[in-house]
């Protein structure tokens, strides 16, 4: 089978990039498929995650400016080139199926290029918040979006809680996969970890406030934050840390291409995100036996974590309960070990073997439908 993946880039650390590497590698190395990854914002950077040597990469070189709307006039001028260059690639490769991973301008024209090729659109972000917006402009935009979505062969979302926010009969739910091996955390280090792009979504502001409260009682502990800076947000957060005199306890650690191995040096994973859909980082934490404390934010953590078993799932934005539960884990190593062991058990339902079996079944069914309409 010839599979063509579309995404914006593969050089920044993030959940979409990580899961793309896992799935593309599995298709190429385990199923023996011919996989091509087409990007449009790679800018000559190397991928941040390991990809199989069997995978072919093509960058269209559109290079939209990060931080600007795709509807910015400067970006709109680039869309004709983006459209035509992608169409040429589709004509040349003639893939059996196209899978669009990230959300970009190609969402609006991809279904109408080479219509005979089945096209799948993956959604990695929640629609919980956008569904609450009711102004005229938002309603028009949503109607256009829903119309285009119906032109895709299949829409794939990550958890069942997202289903009410779509208006299409071509939906399917396939969670992100977890790669599970014999790697296990020891959980005796006095270090807490959080990871994600340093952006508004990840809400590290709350983590710093939580840190201020717990570190008063546990001054020998540290909190480490891993991730790429996004639009200068790290500098603002660092100033907040300095103002609270926490610079000896809370640290930004940059990026790591092997987060699972990095987890081995920590005892607790924390997540204070404003929203998630199906965060890869929680799967990775559970897979190495790292206990988790997370906000029950819309809409993903509750679909992964088992409250009071492998984690503490804290009511959304409730700092007091978060602080209380974090203190419980910090002072009780046996509880951490118990939760970590349960996490290793619970994450098995998302094993990459099970998830990729679903993906392979979906792709084969669409190809059969194409050849036997």
- Through-space gap between termini: 18 Å
Radius of gyration: 21 Å
Which parts are unreliable, with pLDDT below 50 for 5 consecutive residues or more? none
Number of strands: 13
Query: What spatial form do the alpha-carbon principal axes imply?
Result: globular
Give the mean pLDDT. 94
Give the SSE string. EHEEHHEEHEEEHEHEHEHEHEHHH
Main sheet characteristics: 7 strands, parallel
Key phrases:
seven-stranded parallel β-sheet, six-stranded parallel β-sheet, 373 residues, 13 strands, 37% helix, globular, 15% strand, alpha/beta
Gist of the model:
The protein contains twelve helices and 13 strands. It has helices at 15-29, 73-76, 79-93, 136-149, 204-217, 233-243, 259-263, 280-287, 301-304, 319-331, 333-346, 352-371, and strands at residues 2-6, 34-39, 56-59, 97-100, 119-122, 154-157, 171-173, 191-195, 222-226, 250-252, 268-271, 292-295, 311-314. The strands form two sheets. The chain has a seven-stranded parallel β-sheet with strand order 3-2-1-4-5-6-7. A six-stranded parallel β-sheet has the order 10-9-8-11-12-13, sandwiched between helices.
């Amino acid at each position: 089978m010839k599979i063509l993946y579309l995404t914006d880039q593969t050089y920044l650390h993030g959940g979409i990039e990580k899961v793309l590497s896992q799935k593309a590698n599995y298709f190429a190395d385990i199923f023996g498929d011919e996989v091509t990854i087409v990007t449009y914002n790679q800018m000559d950077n190397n991928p941040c995650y390991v990809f199989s040597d069997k995978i072919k990469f093509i960058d269209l070189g559109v290079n939209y400016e990060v931080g600007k709307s795709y509807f910015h006039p400067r970006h709109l001028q680039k869309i004709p080139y983006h459209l035509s260059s992608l169409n040429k690639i589709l004509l040349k490769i003639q893939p059996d199926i196209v899978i669009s991973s990230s959300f970009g301008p190609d969402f609006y024209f991809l279904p109408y290029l080479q219509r005979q090729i089945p096209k799948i659109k993956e959604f990695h972000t929640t629609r919980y918040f956008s569904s609450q917006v009711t102004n005229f402009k938002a309603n028009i935009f949503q109607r256009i979006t829903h119309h285009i979505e119906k032109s895709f062969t299949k829409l794939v979302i990550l958890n069942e809680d997202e289903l009410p926010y779509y208006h299409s009969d071509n939906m399917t739910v396939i969670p992100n996969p977890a790669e599970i091996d014999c790697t296990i955390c020891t959980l005796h280090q006095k270090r807490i970890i959080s990871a994600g792009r340093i952006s508004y979504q990840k809400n590290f502001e709350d983590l710093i406030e939580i840190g201020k409260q717990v570190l008063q009682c546990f001054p020998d502990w540290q909190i480490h934050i891993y991730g790429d800076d996004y639009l200068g947000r790290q500098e603002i957060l660092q100033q907040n840390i300095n103002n609270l005199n926490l610079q000896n306890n809370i640290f930004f650690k940059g990026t790591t291409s092997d987060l699972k191995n990095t987890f081995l040096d920590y005892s607790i994973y924390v997540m204070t995100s404003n929203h998630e859909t199906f965060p890869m980082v929680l799967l990775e934490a559970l897979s190495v036996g790292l206990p988790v404390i997370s906000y029950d934010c819309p809409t993903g953590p509750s679909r992964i974590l088992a409250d009071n078993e492998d984690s503490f799932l804290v009511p959304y934005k409730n700092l007091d309960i978060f602080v209380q539960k974090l203190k419980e884990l910090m002072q009780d190593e046996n509880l951490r070990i118990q939760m970590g062991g349960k996490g290793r058990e619970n994450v098995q339902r998302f094993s990459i073997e099970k998830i990729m079996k679903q993906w392979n079944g979906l792709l084969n069914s669409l190809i059969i439908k194409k050849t036997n309409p």
